[in-house]
């Protein structure tokens, strides 16, 4: 075994209030996951969200002009979205649950 083998996993330690641990454990149990797996997945998902929010998008001047033209053009209705917007919400009179 190599003496200086690279570690593939690195520990993270946190101090949390008992109520937070109880909530995490309950949610992890509902998902059938361990506390470690649940917290790791949630932290990675949150990190991905932040990174995607701050991602730089590069495009050519021509591509940017096309992008701006598409944004400035007339909107095109999406029939499924129009139908969805016309349906009453579950708390409104006339709502019928689809089966």
TrEMBL record:
Annotated GO biological process: regulation of DNA-templated transcription
Single GO MF annotation: DNA binding
InterPro entries for the chain: Ribbon_hlx_hlx (IPR010985), TacA_1-like (IPR014795)
Presence of keyword Repeat: no
Keyword terms of this UniProt record: DNA-binding, Repressor, Toxin-antitoxin system, Transcription, Transcription regulation
One Pfam family matching this protein: TacA1
Family label: Belongs to the TacA antitoxin family.
PANTHER family referenced in this protein's UniProt entry, alphabetically: COPG FAMILY HELIX-TURN-HELIX PROTEIN-RELATED-RELATED, CYTOPLASMIC PROTEIN
Name listed for the protein in its UniProt record: CopG family transcriptional regulator
Naturally occurring in which organism (per UniProt): Blastochloris tepida
């Amino acid at each position: 075994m190599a003496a200086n083998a690279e570690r593939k996993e690195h520990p993270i330690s946190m101090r949390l209030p008992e109520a937070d641990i109880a909530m995490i454990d309950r949610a992890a149990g509902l998902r059938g996951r361990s506390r470690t797996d649940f917290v790791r997945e949630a932290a990675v998902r949150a990190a991905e969200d932040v990174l995607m929010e701050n991602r730089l998008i590069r495009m050519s001047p021509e591509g940017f002009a096309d992008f701006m033209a598409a944004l400035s053009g007339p909107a095109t209705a999406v029939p499924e979205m129009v139908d969805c917007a016309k349906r009453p919400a579950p708390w409104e009179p006339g709502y019928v649950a689809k089966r």
